[in-house]
Amino acid sequence: MRLDKMISSTGVASRSQISSAVRSGRVTVDGVVARKADMQVDPDAVRVVYCGTPVCYRKFTYIMLNKPEGYVSATEDGKSPTVIELLPEELQKIGLFPCGRLDKNTLGLMLLTNDGDTSHRLLAPKSHVAKTYAFRVKFPLSEADVAALESGVDIGGYITAPCTVVFDGEREGRITLTEGKYHQIKLMMEAVHNQITYLERVSFGPLTLDPALDRGQWRYLDGREIALLQKK
């Protein structure tokens, strides 16, 4: 891989900035000053320092975000802030995108990545990846309501797949789905004459929302979490 491509893929600088830094002797490869921005390097085997800062190369980046209210699950939007805007500027430059969507006012776990193949596989209907949400509703849910939700309800001509609902109280609990239709949980509750007042995704496949993350905060996935994702 070219040295300038390796460095620019981390988002720390543009290729023109890297070329300028190389010309002024501010980039080293294994302790030796780089002479050409287009020199070939093995990104997994060399230690590159750009303007005094070690470069941490990742072929793909995986980030867990605790989504706050009011942000849209998109890379850009003309009206509302996006989840990508919650990241540092350098990470906004490397092609990250949300793996799946949460409604603007839904909170909780989001996976941001630039790994298109893994994202596609996780979101494919045939993968049946489980997603769990904590919820509150306006009116108490009856046992008949829960039985209907778990067996499948009509949300505008589509019968939802079976799911599980666990009570934490008569108006709140957790619901686990293996599909993700637009506004699905909201529509499911409306199908049993109820209304969502709070919704937070707490797990997505093998990932569980890190309780150390406040709203709007993020962290890189660790090696174990990445391995679990790639097995899913």
Task: Please describe the topology of this protein.
Elements: H1 3-8, H2 15-23, E1 27-29, E2 32-33, E3 48-50, E4 53-54, E5 62-67, E6 97-98, E7 107-113, H3 116-123, E8 131-137, H4 143-151, E9 164-169, E10 172-177, H5 184-191, E11 196-204, E12 207-208, E13 218-220, H6 223-231
Parallel strand pairs: 7-11
Antiparallel strand pairs: 1-2, 1-3, 3-4, 5-7, 5-13, 6-7, 8-10, 8-11, 9-10, 11-12
Task: Tell me what the structure shows.
There is one protein chain. With 232 residues, this protein is an alpha+beta fold. Helix content is 21%, strand content 25%. Strands 5, 6, 7, 8, 9, 10, 11, 12 and 13 form a 9-stranded mixed sheet that branches. Strands 2-1-3-4 form a 4-stranded antiparallel sheet. The longest helix has 9 residues, at 15-23.
Give the biggest beta sheet. 9 strands, mixed
Question: DSSP strand (E) fraction?
Answer: 25-35%
The average pLDDT value, as a whole number, equals: 95
Shape: elongated
What's the number of domains? 3
Q: Pairing-aware structural class of the strands and helices?
A: alpha+beta
Distance between the termini: 29 Å
Task: Indicate the CATH topology of the largest domain.
Answer: Alpha-Beta Plaits
Provide the CATH top-level class of the largest domain.
Alpha Beta
> How many strand elements?
13
Helix content: 10-25%
CATH homologous group name of the largest domain: Pseudouridine synthase I, catalytic domain, N-terminal subdomain
Give the radius of gyration.
22 Å
* Spans of at least 5 consecutive residues with low confidence: none
The CATH architecture of the largest domain is 2-Layer Sandwich
Order of helices and strands: HHEEEEEEEHEHEEHEEEH
Task: Tally the helices.
Answer: 6
